Amino acid sequence: MNIQEGFENAFKVKPERCFMSPGRVNLIGEHTDYNGGYVFPCALDFGTYGAARKRDDRKIRLASGNIDTVCEVELDKLVYEPAHDWANYPKGVALEILKLGHKIGGFDLYVWGNIPNSSGLSSSASLEVLTAVAINSLYGCNIPMKEIVLLSQRAENQFVGVNCGIMDQYSIGFGKKEMAMLLDCNEIKHEYVPLELGDNVIMVANTNSKRGLADSKYNERRGECEKALSLLQKELPAIKNLCDLDIKTFDAHKHLISDPVLLKRASHAVYENARTIEAVKVLNEGDIKRFGQLMNDSHVSLRDLYEVTGAELDALAEAAWQVEGVLGSRMTGAGFGGCTVTILHKDSVEAFKKQTSEEYTKRTGLTASYYMANTGDGAREI
């Protein structure tokens, strides 16, 4: 896709600037971000591409190479409208920039992305950060990347209504080639970790199943974690998040959570956070085998304690565990469809695709898609 040509076809004028915002895959640390814990994502070398141009009025025009519609709205009348579908994400970002007091005018934005929709690779966050970077560049707002990340998250939380944590926007904004990042979602700070896997590669497998439950269940799980936290705070008033607790402290106080469902949710958050910290430690030590085992343990916890995997993700992950050369495989993203992420030996790639594809189709009737997950840099002008 030539992004400049797409812009010209949509708006009959040339763009001023072009941008790229990656997708991301989370290697371990799922549903810990909004619980104040650690996550371990990396940005990908594919994502959302955009071309943009300033206007001399207060109009915003939004077009996409993926969906054949043009959305036209007034900058001073930005409200969520279900019929606008994907265009609500850029609208929400523009509104957040206005709320910060930046003097911006209208703009034309054309986008095209090669992140599969509803894949759990964060197409929505990629679009949000792309829009913020574009507006920032067009109007010289000088918004630092951390604020771009935060305002993009607010757009999704408050405008679109998905109560996501900070991981997606942050890893897309600060991504770095050949690196993953250990992100502390409580302090909102990160450290880069070289993704040195030796003869192993990262493979993403898409279930291609409809994720109709993802957003509603996401908000439900977040609410369940908040209830569990409030029960623990009766004896532990100083804690602000579930992931403030180490396993020993949690186990000593989990009797406060009498509801078995809430106990399962809290147990996942605390144990997953500990797994993530250990995973980065063993990766730094070169113990890729242990890293893979922790990925498997993560999926089991997401399946049995957090209950966000579903039949399709379980089928793909469980099929992967049977393939020779696979070190670890787990769901990634919100769940209920989307993708698995697998670390496997480079010589096992074709066998992995063949075996998991056959088993997945047998169990679900669906066909999986596969993507080599090469790392990439964060959102930027190109």
Question: What does this 3D model show about the protein?
Answer:
There is one protein chain. By secondary structure, this protein is α+β, with helices and mostly antiparallel strands. It folds into 2 domains: 3-195, Ribosomal Protein S5, domain 2 (2-Layer Sandwich); 200-372, GHMP kinase, C-terminal domain (Alpha-Beta Plaits, 2-Layer Sandwich), CATH 3.30.70. The chain has 11 helices and 12 strands. It has helices at 3-11, 88-99, 123-139, 145-160, 167-174, 214-232, 247-253, 260-284, 288-304, 310-321, 349-364, and strands at 17-28, 38-54, 59-64, 70-74, 107-113, 179-184, 189-194, 200-206, 326-332, 339-345, 369-372, 380-381. Strand 6 (179-184) and strand 7 form a beta hairpin. Helix 4 packs antiparallel against helix 5 (167-174). The chain is globular, with a radius of gyration of 21 Å.
Describe the SSE topology.
Elements (H helix, E strand, L loop, with lengths): L2 H9 L5 E12 L9 E17 L4 E6 L5 E5 L13 H12 L7 E7 L9 H17 L5 H16 L6 H8 L4 E6 L4 E6 L5 E7 L7 H19 L14 H7 L6 H25 L3 H17 L5 H12 L4 E7 L6 E7 L3 H16 L4 E4 L7 E2 L1
Parallel strand pairs: 3-5
Antiparallel strand pairs: 1-2, 1-12, 2-5, 2-6, 3-4, 6-7, 8-10, 8-11, 9-10
Number of strands: 12
Structural class: alpha+beta
- The percent range for helix content is 40-55%
Estimated share of beta-strand residues: 15-25%
Total of DSSP H or I helical runs spanning 4+ residues: 11
User: At the first level of CATH, what is the class of the largest domain?
Assistant: Alpha Beta
Unreliable segments of 5+ consecutive residues:
none
Gross morphology is globular
Per CATH, the architecture of the largest domain is 2-Layer Sandwich
